[in-house]
Design brief:
The chain has 740 residues and is of the alpha/beta class. Helix content is 35%, strand content 21%. It has 25 helices and 33 strands. A 9-stranded mixed sheet has the order 4-3-17-16-18-19-20-21-22. The chain has a 5-stranded parallel sheet with strand order 8-7-9-11-10, with helices on both faces. Strands 23, 24, 26, 27 and 28 form a 5-stranded antiparallel sheet that branches. A hairpin with a 7-residue loop joins strand 3 (35-39) and strand 4 (47-50). Helix 13 crosses helix 14 (398-410). It is globular and about 115 Å long. The N and C termini lie far apart (87 Å).
């Protein structure tokens, strides 16, 4: 005899295993049917992924990662789970932490045995890979998919000491050389299969050598295949909606039915059995309701404070504590022995600096610092689960990763992913009515302005402004200085006053203009310190040198180098204690700060927080000329007010025997302005400099700037090269133009 059967499980939420990571826990407390990610690529059908799909795929990929790491470790004779990151001792903290501590940069041995490099483009598979790695407490390093292997990718793999690479099928094939082929795991069938070359345990003296030109990488996981297999298995399970149980026959069921009395007896037995099953189901329902009503408050139940609905226990993805053998080795250990679970100060994320002033450094963030930078922005910018953010930025930098993606999924919001391939298309996407947030860099806003002005009809311009005003509640700009003319032009077209903020890979977001009131967003500034942030403005050299900035020109109450202290500060530079300690500054009260390397001007306000203006990188944007310290960013912003002439401007200083440094303007002109002056570029002529153009532009500058701030040279180029986040590497620019 068969019947529909729903077993009474000892249900434990997976979220309870992920207390160490704010974002991961929030994802696992979201409504499973809610859309988490929407992928919109021109020429391809739109793809949507729910939080329920995301949770299940994260677990499936994490299971494969855990099995693979365990298989490799055991094949080498290493202890079970020796590949897991050990919990950081309580007395070990960042060198920037307050109070007594052992600096982590001195304590940690950054060998990379728990480091995973991520090679995915923006999209669903990236999110699955990131969260799966975090769920196993692995230090995760996103890599730029726009870079070549022989440049940045090989540098990251070697420098990080990554043992695992997880990526998409096509990127693994395109970006990694043939030496990695034998390390590929393309599906579950290959997870437990370890080649002989990997099984050989390295001798200590060989540990610094590369393995077949793959550095320390021993596993390359194809996340595309793993997700496809996971989806196929899940669909098969969901198609079997009834679990069938064999019920032992009763004595009457075994007896032959020879009379009407036998039939009546059989029916009576069946009624009794049915009643017992019904009572069991009622008991199960009552137990679940009791657990739901009496459970302790969680992040999910407190989420209503941010406009996010409560989540019932029945909606949480759970495992059965009576079937722990179904969990991977890591989760099983964490459930059985909570003392082995990760700590909030364990390593979580390593991002590489953009390297605009030096070689890229690996910036290590902990679960605590990542959680802090997300929570701060959730509160400051009032993220809601009803929000939809349009994501067009790279995902291997803090702006695109933390400010947009992590804030979105930690808020149970929807992240709409689309490439910035056509400014007009993206502008039309903003006006459709379902996007509530948009964040970009200044070059994106410049291109949006150009597209709307040049390619939109009057009716389309009206529609763009109307759509932005009615549906988009916040537009943010950062990662590079926003020229005031660009701010004003975009406000005219969209009706939005862009919110400017300041942050770095090392600090997360530190300063921000207010969400409300909009009138307090002062153009040319980056606002005030965010919650948990302390600032210190100090003199990096001599007070006399700093005072040489013209106070009446800049109108600042204080000028100096910016130091930051906050819960979002990074832990250390990977395997570089010297560089980490070099950036520590301590004020008179003994508070430790991180030296940002930026020079700021501070304007005090009565009854309100002080407002900060970024004057530039101390090393490249502060030009010492004729006894003055000039802000390259200020000069750039003023010249860009002549939009009829200048499309882009980069101000640099070059050595000068008399002046110390002379001011040089590298410019990209508006197409009409260049054509009117007979300036054209081809493969043989990528730079234009002439006395006629320089004399004309000097006169323009004198109308806008004090004489000592005016550039002495104007070099015209087709476009100013920028990195993925819109920043100009001025050292490379000077080298390219022979200005060093």
């Amino acid at each position: 005899m068969f019947c529909a059967f729903s077993p009474l499980l000892a249900r434990v939420a997976y979220a309870s295993l992920f207390e160490h990571n704010h974002v991961l826990k929030r994802v696992f407390t979201s409504h499973p049917s809610k859309v988490a990610l929407t992928l919109e690529v021109p020429g391809m059908p739109e793809a949507q992924f729910t939080y329920g799909q995301l949770q299940r795929d994260v677990l499936a990929v994490a299971d494969a990662m855990a099995r693979r790491r365990e298989a490799v470790a055991l094949s080498r004779g290493e202890a079970s789970l020796s590949w897991l990151q050990p919990r950081k001792p309580a007395h070990v903290r960042s060198v920037f932490a307050q109070g007594d501590r052992v600096p982590s940069c001195d304590y940690m041995r950054d060998t990379g045995f728990y480091t995973t490099s991520l090679l995915c483009g923006p999209g669903y598979r990236y999110v699955v890979s990131l969260l799966a790695s975090w769920s196993l407490n692995q230090l995760t390093t996103p890599m730029s998919v726009s870079q070549r292997y022989n440049d940045e990718l090989s540098y990251v793999l070697e420098h990080s000491g990554s043992h695992t690479v997880i990526g998409e099928t096509h990127l693994l094939k395109e970006k990694l050389p043939a030496a990695y082929e034998e390390l590929h795991v393309r599906g579950e069938a290959g997870v437990d299969r370890v080649s002989r070359s990997l099984s050989k345990k390295e001798k200590p003296q060989e540990s610094s050598k590369v393995r077949c030109n793959t550095f320390l990488v021993d596993t390359v996981l194809d996340v595309t295949s793993l997700i496809q297999e996971s989806t196929a298995k899940r669909e098969m399970r969901e198609s079997a909606t009834i679990e069938v149980e064999w019920l032992p026959p009763t004595d009457s069921a075994c007896a032959p039915m020879r009379s009407a009395e036998d039939v009546m007896k059989r029916l009576g037995d069946e009624r009794i059995a049915a009643k017992a099953r019904d009572m069991n189901r009622q008991a199960e329902i009552l137990q679940r309701e009791h657990l739901r009503r009496n459970r302790a408050p969680t992040d999910a139940s407190r989420a209503g404070d941010r406009g996010q609905s409560d989540i019932h226990g029945d909606d949480l993805l759970c495992f059965d504590s009576e079937r722990l053998d179904e969990l991977n080795q890591v989760y099983r250990r964490w459930y059985a022995d909570p003392s082995t679970r990760p700590g909030e100060y364990d390593d979580c994320l390593m991002l590489y600096t953009s390297g605009t002033t030096a070689k890229p450094k690996g910036v290590v963030h902990t679960h605590a610092s990542v959680g802090s930078m997300v929570r701060v922005l959730q509160d400051a910018w009032e993220w809601r689960d009803t929000d939809s953010v349009l994501h067009i930025l790279p995902w291997h930098h803090v702006h695109g990763l933390a400010n947009i993606l992590l804030c979105a999924i930690a808020s149970h919001a929807r992240c709409v992913i689309t490439p910035f391939d056509d400014a007009a298309r993206v502008a039309h996407r903003l006006e459709r009515g379902d996007i509530t947030l948009f964040m970009a860099v200044p070059t994106v806003y410049t291109k949006l302005i150009d597209a709307v002005q040049r390619r939109f009809s009057p009716i389309e311009k009206t529609g763009f402004r109307k759509g932005c005003m009615e549906s988009v509640r916040l537009m943010v700009c950062g990662s590079a200085p926003l020229p005031v003319p660009t701010l004003n032009q975009f406000r005219e077209l969209s009706g939005h006053t862009l919110l400017e903020r300041y942050g770095m890979t090392e600090t997360g977001m530190a300063l921000s203009q207010p969400l409300h009131p909009i009138a307090d967003r002062h153009s040319g500034t980056v606002g005030s310190p965010l919650p948990t942030v302390q600032t210190c403005v100090y003199q990096p050299e001599t007070r006399e040198a700093a005072e040489q900035i013209s106070a009446k020109e800049a109108d600042f109450d204080e000028v100096g180098a910016l130091g930051i202290a906050s819960d979002s500060l990074f832990d250390r530079y990977w395997n570089n204690p010297t560089a980490t300690k070099k950036d520590v500054r301590t004020n008179a009260a003994g508070v430790r700060f991180f030296d940002t390397g930026d020079t700021v001007g501070v304007r005090l306000q009565e009854g309100k927080p002080a407002v900060y203006t970024i004057l530039g990188r101390t090393s490249v944007d502060i030009i010492k000329s004729r006894g003055y310290k000039l802000s390259a960013l200020e000069i750039e912003a003023v010249l860009l007010s002549r939009r009829d002439l200048f499309y882009e401007v980069a101000i640099v200083g070059t050595p000068d025997a008399v002046q110390g440094e002379s001011v040089v303007a590298v410019i990209a002109m508006q197409p009409e302005a260049a054509e009117a002056r007979g300036i054209a570029f081809d493969e043989g002529a990528a730079v234009h400099e002439s006395a006629r153009v320089t004399d004309e532009l000097k006169k323009v500058a004198l109308e806008l700037l004090a004489p000592y701030k005016c550039p002495s040279r104007y070099i015209v180029v087709p476009a100013i090269p920028r990195n993925a986040t819109g920043k100009v590497n001025k050292k490379n620019l000077k080298r390219m133009l022979h200005l060093l």
